[in-house]
Amino acid sequence: MRKFIALSIMIIAGLAGYAQTAEHEPNNSFATANYLVKDEVTTGIISSVTDNDFFVTYIPVDGTLKIYVKATNTSSISNYLYFRVYGSNQVELSARY
Q1: Does the pLDDT at position 12 exceed 50?
Q2: Cα–Cα distance between 59 and 26 in angstroms, integer?
Q3: CB 83 within 8 A of CB 10
Q4: 3-state secondary structure of 7
Q5: Strand, coil or helix: 19
Q6: CA distance 26 to 70
Q7: 66 alpha-carbon distance from chain centroid
Q8: Is residue 53 within 8 Å of 23, Cβ to Cβ?
């Protein structure tokens, strides 16, 4: 079983027909990451520019993992969304997008 941890600033999706859950704080580290469930929408809110939200999921087989991310900046400050994917060893697997 492969374990992947996804770090994102915000995960918000509006997919009709999927169950929806809100993130649970604190989830600001690998140790406190929220679990992502297949075919379920998870929402999160960034409370400050230093807030990071961690999510974890398990991938039972090799293949393609699709994660849809939608972010809305409601502050007056121009910020960026950083999304990173880590392996079970907590080393980044992909480049920053």
Answers
A1: no
A2: 24
A3: no
A4: strand
A5: strand
A6: 21
A7: 12
A8: yes
